[in-house]
Amino acid sequence: MMKQMLGNSYLFGANAPFIEELYESYLENPASVTDAWRDYFDKLQDLPGAPLDVAHAPIVASFAQRAKLGTLRPAAVAPVADTRQVKVLQLINAYRFLGNRWAQLDPLKRAERPTIAELDPAFYGFTEADLGVSFNTGSFAFGGEEATLREILESLRQTYCGSIGAEYMYMSDISQKRWIQSRLESIRSTPDFSVEQKTRLLDRLTAAETLERYLHTRYVGQKRFSLEGGESAIVAMDEVVRHAGTHGTEEIVIGMAHRGRLNVLVNILGKTPQMLFSEFEGKHADELSAGDVKYHNGFSSDVATPGGPVHLSLAFNPSHLEIVNPVVTGSVYARQRWRKDSAGEKVMGVLLHGDAAVAGQGVNQEMLNYSQTRGYGTGGTVHIVINNQIGFTTSDPRDYRSSLYCTDIFKMIEAPVFHVNGDDPEAVALVTRIALDFRREFRKDVVIDLICFRKLGHNEQDEPMVTQPLMYKKVAAHPGTRKVYAERLISQGVIGADDPERMIKDFRAALDEGRVIESPVLSDYHRKHAVDWAPFLNKEYTDTCNTKVPLADLKRLAGRLTDVPDEFTLHPRVKKIIEDRKAMGQGKHPIDWGMGETLAYATLVVEGYGVRVSGEDCGRGTFFHRHAVLHDQNRERWDAGNYVPLQHIDEKQSPFIVIDSVLSEEAVLAFEYGYATTEPNELVVWEAQFGDFANGAQVVIDQFITSGEAKWGRLCGLVMLLPHGYEGQGPEHSSARLERYMQLCAEQNIQVCVPSTPAQIFHLLRRQMLRKLRKPLIVMTPKSLLRHKDAVSSLEELAAGGFKPLIGETEELDAKKVKRVVLCSGKIYYDLAAARREKKQTDTAILRVEQLYPFPTKSYAAELKKYPNAREVVWCQEEPLNQGAWYSSRHHFTAGLRDGQALHVVARPAAASPAVGYQSKHNAQQRTVIETALGSSAKLKGSAE
């Protein structure tokens, strides 16, 4: 059979894909092909001059050529003619791999082309005499099966070494590589734009340059982070909006840092220059308590495109550069869910990066790592790197990065990268279209590396000549991208010699009037999928909310939560938990934390609120308490082995999503923040594996969650669940760093709660959605209390109660005999209560502050009044004295005191570490804290600060 196949030469022409698949099988596993084919492939790999990473396409092409010559023999060494043919195909392959390194990408032309031997025909033994010889072109899209070596070489250099340098051969998906080859090679990477299209490109460059120069002269010395030198970014963004709109995209969410932001606001989103000038002149929105600088602000608009209206949203961004990127992807994901746009056809994200930041900031790695995972994938993000080749203040390339390109990080997800010379706006427009088409075709990220320069310093007060003298001599001599392109169009006869100056004058006149000369903004357009935030705006903080649920409903929901399919085999420990929960729902057992939390989610989804829970181990729960996802012990989890009871509560319920995230805090928390600021009608929960780990996302907490409303007016109902409690697990598994959140509390910006019972977490989570208020909620959740015999609630407490910001004394004490009131939060309450029972102490009342901020001032004062003879009020905390809630809350504790009452604090000694690592020392400290809080007044005198 093999001999018969080898004898049919037509098999290796039209049916070349069969051979390609055979060769791929050989590359993966040589034993997967027959001995004859394996021997032939082995010998072909050993041909002289073959690169180590030779691709399969040249091999396939060589089969076709040999078939024509009638010389195919499976075990024979290729004859001389075939060897030369294979070397031509290797040359083609080399340009696909390495041509980008020889491309003309730098507008400043600072460096000569590097020597790359593999791109020289001499490397393969070719001489001048071979240039006129015809060879088979293999898979190279030349337009015919054969061409001379000279024609092949010229076409390769035009395709891969001009203004566009493509990197894609590292991708493992053959169809994606073939798609890129077809798009680039068929047109030699050379666009064919009409006169109208070319004129528009010049128009966009003129708009970009004129705005920058206008601001530079009108607001001398003010920071704006100019786009000069990188004006082609506006060309790229214009193409993104128009091309995406043409193909059905209806929303684009944009994220970018400072460089060029003002230009994007005016020339892409249509923000009027008058609005921008007002910001330069110090005018501000009175409704914001803090506000932000002009180059951090976001904006949204609806613009017209050839394919219909497109809604543009530019995300607010702090100075932490790339941190906005996962925020954008979270917002995109939320918008796609509204529309049921699982393929990302209607909504997409566009991220503009800086060259130093994209390579230097680790949040990008975290974001890319989740880009193709469940619960985070958005169908691909378009990345545009404004590569000014200088970064921030780097003066030596050796200090810039370790990789060849700043975009090499994108190779981790096999995203193609299109390097392009910013001085060639037509090439920029072309690769932008190709990038968008690739994203639409394959639903994955794609990168445009816009290589340009920075005309001014990092900001307008910076002097770059100090550290970059030679580069900035080149910059000073550069006429500007607009002028370079204008002269090109004049020489082609596309425009007249006077047209460029006329365009500049028109734009300047428009700027003088405070308007945009060409505004595609649709002022009266009403989006079908817009979310109404009006019910949540300008709302005063309140704790009042009816979170009760009828007892019958709770029992019914509990039954649904514990109804597991018959064919499902649970782990014995999980089976016991489900059985216990069934008894809890019937009122036979008290409710534990896991059941209280789960019932909160169940009641919300049947009331019309979606729920999204994410975190590194949130499906099961780090401490084996949640079990929102059940796993069949006889099937793998990624098969049919998962069952999520909360998704099967009711036929008309809202969605419940629980996702075990990648091992990331910063990017995932930023994603959830972006999601929550876009979707007010869904409970969005992020759970840290241990509360301590949230410090890896401190930038998100500081710059977005706690300050986003004051700076930008961005409302957010995000919930952070942070396991917290001192159980002797060492410094990284004890404290959620409560003090950090408390230090950030002001202007009723967030809520910080330490619930101590299942009923409390039930009502707290429900309150978060049922109130017409959207504030971030920080919850110090328990660890040991998850299964503590006293940390339970009755079903009636869920049905008839509500969240209590402060819980008073729960045991029967003679209020007149109480001499001391101990205040505390969280787990330590149970230690104090147990010690008090053991001592049979009746002169000490214990109050639990369940909401540390906003502080329940009225409830606190009312509770203290119950104990007229109490002269000592003690704040008791597990954390060291310099940590926890003491320093940030003592003014609240003091404000509620009566005359004659003294305030004391009991805590671990001030420490540099959150907790000790030695179990014996932990136990000794814990005993001291409890004994001091309940002990004599003499001990207390030594405990205060």
Q: What features would you describe in this structure?
A:
By secondary structure, the chain is α/β, with parallel strands linked by helices. It folds into four domains: 2-157, no CATH class; 195-259 and 301-512, Thiamin diphosphate (ThDP)-binding fold, Pyr/PP domains (Rossmann fold, 3-Layer(aba) Sandwich); 593-626 and 653-800, Rossmann fold (3-Layer(aba) Sandwich), CATH 3.40.50; 808-941, Rossmann fold (3-Layer(aba) Sandwich), CATH 3.40.50.11610. Helices cover 39% and strands 12% of the residues. The protein is built from 32 helices and 24 strands. The strands form five sheets. The chain has an eight-stranded mixed sheet, sandwiched between helices. Strand 17 (751-753), helix 26 and strand 18 form a beta-alpha-beta unit. Helix 8 crosses helix 18 (499-512). The model is unreliable at 1-18, 48-54 and 70-81 (pLDDT under 50).
List keywords for this structure.
single chain; alpha/beta; Rossmann fold; seven-stranded mixed sheet; 32 helices; globular; disordered N terminus; thiamine pyrophosphate; thiamine pyrophosphate binding
